[in-house]
Design brief:
Low-confidence stretches of chain A: none
Oligomer: heterodimer
CATH topology of one domain in chain A: Amidase signature (AS) enzymes
Order of helices and strands of chain B: HHH
Strand order of the largest sheet of chain A: 1-3-2-4-6-5-10-11-9-7-8
Number of strands of chain A: 11
Number of helices of chain A: 15
Helix content of chain A: 25-40%
Largest sheet of chain A: 11 strands, mixed
Largest interface: A-B, 67 and 50 residues
Largest sheet of chain B: none
Helix content of chain B: 25-40%
Low-confidence stretches of chain B: none
Structural class of chain B: mainly alpha
Shape of chain B: flat
Mean pLDDT of chain B: 90
CATH superfamily of one domain in chain A: Amidase signature (AS) domain
Order of helices and strands of chain A: HHEHEHEHEHEEHEHEHHHHEHHEEH
Radius of gyration of chain A: 21 Å
Chain lengths: ~500, ~100
């Protein structure tokens, strides 16, 4: 029997493999054929691990044939973002700096997925070192949006979003520092969740901004996001900032209705900065909640207008410190013509970092430099505290906050790439969640007239992923229309 | 008038160990000027008495048992070295006039 296994959800695939309806190897072959068929147009994959995928699938099938219990992601095809350390293949961060880098260890999330019997198909594209909102900053290739090949997939986890949306994997792990999971999920019409800071171990995630970075899944259904979180969340001795809290069964939270649930709409998110089609679809989604008994309340996040300034001070400062490690000594690019130690540092960095990475290192170095530290970095940390306080106050009046994920739907290549500030402004609705360390999810809520996906963002209190997923799941099951599939299908 | 001069940009580039050609430098004067001017909006917000948010999570003293684990093998540690001699990472000579190292 042939079926479009590559469109099935991770939960369906895993259930089918565990009950013996289909083998992990069959799933993998179907998935590899799918990539053969469409990836020439999408270019989501930067590395294909066909042999690894087949070997992992065979291992799962062997386990099954011996009657051993299979893991919760049995046979589920996964694509990994280029900044997750893996012993297999390379870990390039889509940068010339790490073009040949082979990690000597696996990231904790990678180990946990493997232990859950997932199958790795390879690595997917991203903006260099996760700096960008369109994946145009990749030093490897251009990834296109499956809904319109002239448009960007968003970023920085653009390869992840494009692959999931085009049926090139069921789950992709991305990372989110200021929206890098949720914004591409929004632009490609899939589900993307950034868990609470500390929920998922960052061990083996190449660091961009350490007080903001968090790993999370991009999937086609909310249930699959919950299923993945069950596997990847939890305390890890290798990451001192991973929270020592019990991990609930997130899939078990996807029940019940939204009667009495208080959903807050921040008035600062529904201004003229929000494009009309986005506003319309999100208001319709909010109406669906209201019609099902949720209480809709207006809330205020008065410091919202400062979030981008705060974010680009803190993230560039942290990036300038984190990226200082790429000195050409132990790994990464070393300029072959460098004759002295100083030249080795300077020539290697200057030749191997792309323009956006250089710009952020420069900004970060500037805001941390003597004489400017108080005016920029310290000021930003104070305003960050106020932004968190805004959310604390808002969550006194509501349980979940709803709003847009992105001010606009996807845009054409080159539309913003010449103007860094304009590109930064496209993160306006997502970065506060990182600054306040909250969990946030983007779920599809329709298409624009031009046929591009629109996403709604939901946010919750720290470590309330269960409520977040439940609320997202309820909408997904009751939105009353099918998102359909991208025309590439 | 830009927030940042060419001189500032070359000073910061030196701190960041980056070398910029003239075109890149010129571009950065403009772009960093725009971005820093945008960041100035923070000055309109009074933050007197606000405790800066230094940490993402309120955790203190995360400790673990002082147990010996398996370290990265010598071979693994050197596998990405641009230049090595099997035992050490090799870098250009730091002190003039000395042999070996």
């Amino acid at each position: 029997m042939t079926m479009d296994w590559y469109w099935k959800s991770a939960s369906e695939i895993s259930a089918a493999v565990r009950s013996g309806v289909v083998s992990a190897s069959d799933i993998t072959e179907a998935q590899l054929r799918r990539i053969d068929e469409v990836d020439g147009r999408i270019d989501a994959y930067t590395q294909r691990w066909d042999d690894t995928a087949r070997a992992m699938a065979a291992k799962v099938d062997k386990k099954a044939s011996r009657g051993e219990a299979l893991g919760p992601l049995a046979g589920v095809p996964v694509g990994l973002k280029e900044l997750l350390c893996t012993r297999v293949g390379k870990t390039t961060c889509a940068s010339k700096m790490l073009e040949h880098f082979r990690s000597p260890y696996d990231a904790t999330v990678v180990k946990r997925l493997e232990a859950a019997d997932a199958v790795f198909l390879g690595k997917v594209n991203m903006d260099e070192f996760a700096m960008g909102s369109s994946t145009e900053n990749s030093a490897i290739k251009v990834t296109r949006n499956p809904w319109n090949l002239k448009c960007v997939p968003g970023g920085s986890s653009g390869g992840s979003a494009a692959a999931v949306s085009a049926g090139e994997c069921a789950i992709s792990l991305g990372s989110d520092t200021g929206g890098s999971i949720r914004q591409p999920a929004c632009l490609c019409g899939c589900v993307g969740i950034k868990p609470t800071y500390g929920r998922v171990s960052r061990y083996g995630l190449v660091a961009f901004a350490s007080s903001l970075d968090q790993i999370g899944p991009l999937t086609r259904t909310v249930e699959d996001a919950a299923l993945t979180l069950n596997v990847i969340c939890g305390r890890d001795e290798m990451d001192a900032t991973s929270a020592d809290l019990p991990v609930p069964d997130f899939t078990g939270a996807l029940t019940g209705d939204v009667r009495g649930l208080r959903i807050g709409l921040p008035k600062e998110y529904f201004t003229e900065a929000l494009s009309e089609p986005m506003r319309e679809r999100i208001e319709q989604a909010v109406d669906a909640y209201r019609a099902n008994g949720a209480e809709i309340v207006e809330v205020s996040l008065p410091c919202s207008e400062y979030a981008i300034a705060v974010y680009y001070i803190i993230c560039t400062a942290e990036a300038s410190a984190n990226l200082a490690r790429f000195d050409g000594v132990r790994y990464g690019f070393r300029h072959p013509e460098a004759k002295t130690m100083q030249d080795m540092y300077v020539m290697s960095k200057s030749a191997a970092f792309g323009p956006e990475v250089r710009r952020r290192i420069m900004l970060g170095t500037y805001v941390l430099s003597s004489g400017y530290y108080d005016a920029y970095y310290l000021k930003a940390q104070k305003v960050r505290a106020l932004i968190k306080k805004d959310f604390d106050a808002a969550f006194e009046k509501c349980d979940v906050i709803a709003g847009p994920t992105s001010p606009t739907a996807s845009f054409e290549f080159g539309a913003k790439s010449d103007n860094p500030l304009e590109m930064y402004l496209s993160d306006i609705y997502t970065i506060s969640v990182n600054l306040a360390t909250l969990p946030g999810i983007s779920i599809p809520c329709g298409l624009t007239d031009a046929g591009l996906p629109v996403g709604m963002q939901l946010m919750a209190r720290p470590f309330e992923e269960e409520l977040l997923l439940k609320t997202a799941h309820f909408y997904e099951q009751n939105r009353g229309f099918d998102m359909g599939r991208p025309p590439i299908a | 008038m830009s927030k940042i001069s060419e001189k500032d940009v070359s000073y910061v580039a030196a701190l960041a160990q980056l070398r910029l050609d003239d075109a890149a430098q010129e571009r950065l004067v403009r772009e960093m000027g725009d971005i820093l001017a945008y960041m100035d909006k923070l000055n309109s917000l009074n933050t007197d008495g606000v405790e800066p948010m230094m940490h993402a999570l309120e955790m203190t003293n995360v400790l673990r048992d002082d147990k010996t684990g398996a370290p990265l093998s010598h071979e693994d540690a050197l596998m990405n070295a641009p230049v090595d001699n099997g035992d050490y990472f090799i870098v250009p000579k730091i002190l003039e006039g000395e042999e070996g190292g």
